[in-house]
Amino acid sequence: MLRLPPFEYQAPNSIAEAVAMKAECGDSAMFVSGGTDLFPNMKRRQFTPKILIGLRKLSELRSISLDDSGNGLMIGSGVSLSEVAEHPEILNNFPALAKAASLVSAPQLRNMGTIGGNLCLDTRCNYYNQTFQWRKSLGFCLKKTESPMQNGAICWVARSSPKCLAVSSSDCAPVMVALDTEFHLMNSDGKRIVPAGEFYKNDGMDFLNKTPDELLVSIHLPFHEGWRMNYRKLSRRDAIDFPVLGVAVALRLDTSGNCMEARIVLGAVASCPLRAFEAEKLLVGGSLTAEGSLTRIENTAQVAAKLAKPMDNTDMTLGFRKKMVTQFVAETIKEVLK
Amino acid sequence: MKQLLTLNINGETKEVWTSTHKTLLEVLREDLYLTGTKHGCELGECGACSVLIDGEPVLACLILPVEVQGQEIQTIEGLAKNGVPHPLQTAFAEQGASQCGYCSPAMLMTAKALLEINSNPDSNTIREALSGTLCRCTGYSKIIEAVEQAAGELAVMRQNS
Amino acid sequence: MGKGFGLGCGSYLSGAGLPIYWNKMPHSGVQIKIDRGGGVTVFCGSTDIGQGSNSVLAGIVAEELGIDIGDIIVVTADTDLTPVDLGSYSSRVTLMTGNAAIDAARPLREKILSAASEVLKIPAEKLMLRNSSVLSKNGSGEPVPFVDAVQWAETKYGILGSVGSYTPPSRGGKYKGGGVGPSPNYSYSACVAEVTCDPESGIYRVDKLWMAHDIGQAINEKLVIGQVEGSAYMGLSEAMMEEQIYRTGKDNPGGLHKTPSMLDYKSLTALDMPEIETFLVETHDPEGPYGAKEAGQGPLLPIMPAIANAIYNAVGVRVDEVPITPEKIYQGLKGLKSGKPRGSGVIGRVGPNKFPKITFPEAIKVKSVDG
Fold it and tell me: What is the residue range of C273's domain?
């Protein structure tokens, strides 16, 4: 049986109290909300916190509302993925986000898992997301864990790699980056706002621009008047699986079909979502509906795909995943234009 | 470390003195002897431990019972009322939707939650709702037919009541 | 999108001719007790793992004694109480326990009819057991309740109990491999699969399966369909994704399982599994109980070739190994585009390039027992 390691459970009554608890307990404490990412990792002893600070009961974290200026939505980090997938405001204004949330795992898990948890999802690797015994038999890998005895020195995916190559496996993160979202963080010293594009770092161990004592409190989604967007996911099965490739595309078109702005973001092909700046430039400035634009879309997709450097540490072969980037980017752009 | 939990399970209030780090699944099975809910992968990958919290299907293997105090927990043990099987249970038996039975409690509870929000789901909606629970015996088709049958029977029962 | 249909066929055995530990004793035993209240209890070592073997036992005894299946108590899988059955494997249970149950039930039927014949003064061969009664075959006279006839039989013969066994017929040839013995009978299955495959990526979904299975005789049609569809699921999951992969190399001399969890070892979810339409073909095999044969494993076999053929039909790629993954189809599609044959020398074919190197012993030539 896989049991949780023993811990003490604390239930703060407010966000302020939660971050104060964390400041007091330091590294021995971890926040937990939905638990769908942390608890499997705890059962496999990737994490063994002495104290868990439970956020599930904090109603402050569970609301979806208009921001103060009325120019966007504020989503509390504790809102469940099911609610993100079904909320009318999100479906109307940010359909790509609703779709990404609806594609995470399966219904039971989406009822528990939160948007904040999905955005802070621990990077994944099929050498890392294994039981304690499995990892011990091979030798623990580079990706750090709480326990010093589990710290190995080798990345099993690429022996010579100085950094961990675990994969950003969030469905929602690429969409957030594409939509210029802002993440509101809080610790006992105060608040900080980080744009989604700067929140993620391409390092499997140190993958978030967030200190352990900072809590992701809410996500600000500015309204995207005149934009169209979509998200596509590659996984072996239609439920339960993490993405082995995610593509988020958002385009702002004028009335004659000219592309004014573009966002293309790749998920699950690196340790963070990758924004394809060069590819985006190829789309901006001309019609995407006129004749000949198909070639432009194909070229854009090929340029975007150059960014992807999948490694052999998820389902599906890395060569195939790399090849699929081109096709998925092109198809997602075409779907957005439909 | 231990704690006293007060849980509302199938309409009854239960008090349990148990370890803080036990999951809801472990407390249900080991402390309350409600062994109808099954241990599967214990990592949120198979769905065998699904129960309902306030009517929504969730995975009991990844829930701390302390966090669901005050909420309504429904397990398979509460599905039949006064010895009368729920229409879903009758339909599962009649359709052969249960073979080895390991996924059946999860399938039944998930289907119950679906039929409470959607009284006439099409087969794709049923597939989507059940997609988080793996079945190795049936190929799912009899399960889907049983849920369709139960939806029809529940509709007739509502009309007659 | 490439649409394709594929057909596959398979054949399977209903149990082996010889037991797993070598002896000449029965493979299955059934004991039946009838009490003077008319209660019938069937004892058998068979284990119901969800395939419905308890239902098969009850159904067969009910058929023999002309009573309702719901009136039979079945006691199984307890070696303290039951005669031996070798177990739920090798698709053997319906055939072997079924024959043992018939063997046990018939003497009891004879005793009940013979006692009834004496009381009713009608020859036993003109009586039958049906609808929990003793009836005359020509429909004359009042039906006698089963329980009354049971009491007449107990009065005449003493306590009613019976045992039955089944040992497969000896058909083994004297050739290598013949030791395991030919199966008492063989099932046959066919599958048609419909797939939609993207000719660019090789990503495909299976839209529908049509399954036909020669069951000989369905003892319980619902359960048989359940077995056929469950086998189709297993076969399809194996055809599409299930795979045991071990990490090897100098760091892993023993081999470490690459996908040791239900997340990483992929099997089909309700969203991946297509609709199945099942047809049962009844051919009444002389060796089966009422002509029955297996259903729990055979229907798995035609799925893999049906999927492989459907993919070939859809996009022209021939994948010669399982699982038939989009990655492999993509390789084949690349081959078709480039026009270059891969290792196997066949354009658009993916799979092992040669038979693995095995040193075979010299062939043993034998003469068939059938001449």
Answer: 2-12+182-315
Facing C330 at nearest CB: one of A237, A315, A323: A323
Q: Give the number of A-B residue pairs with CB atoms closer than 8 Å.
A: 86
C56: left (phi over 0), alpha (psi -120 to 50) or beta: alpha
Same domain, C28 and C161: yes
Does the beta-carbon distance from A317 to C252 stay under 8 Å? no
Write the burial class of residue A273 (CB in 10 Å: 0-12 exposed, 13-18 middle, 19+ buried). Answer: buried
Q: Please, is A255 exposed, middle or buried when counting C-beta atoms within 10 Å of its C-beta (0-12, 13-18, 19+)?
A: exposed
Write down the pLDDT at residue A24: 96
Confidence at residue A291, expressed as pLDDT on a 0 to 100 scale: 82
Task: Assess contact for C173 and C369: CB atoms under 8 A.
Answer: yes
DSSP A116-163: HHHHTPPPB-TTTSS-HHHHHHH--BSS--SSGGG--SB-SS-TT-SS
Looking at residue C365, what is its pLDDT? 72
Domains of chain A: 1-57 (3.30.43.10), 229-337 (3.30.390.50)
Q: What's the gap between Cα A176 and its chain centre?
A: 8
The SS3 call for residue A171 is coil
Contacts of B132 (CB under 8 A, 6+ apart): A105, A106, A107, A108, A109, A239, A240, B47, B50, B57, B59, B110, C269
Q: How far is A94 from chain C (nearest CA, A)?
A: 25
Mean pLDDT value across residues B122-131:
98
The alpha-carbon gap from A7 to the nearest alpha carbon of chain B, in Å, equals: 6
Domains of chain B: 2-78 (3.10.20.30), 87-160 (1.10.150.120)
Let me know whether C218 and C278 are in one domain: yes
pLDDT of residue C344: 64
Write out pLDDT tens, residues C47-59.
999 999 999 999 9
Interface contact A51, partner B, CB < 8 A: no
Specify whether C129 is located in the same domain as C221.
no
Confidence category of residue C173, pLDDT binned at 50, 70, 90: low
Shared domain for C82 and C133, answered yes or no, is yes
* Of B87 and A291, the one with more pLDDT: B87
Q: At what angle do helices B104-117 and B123-130 cross, to 10 degrees?
A: 130
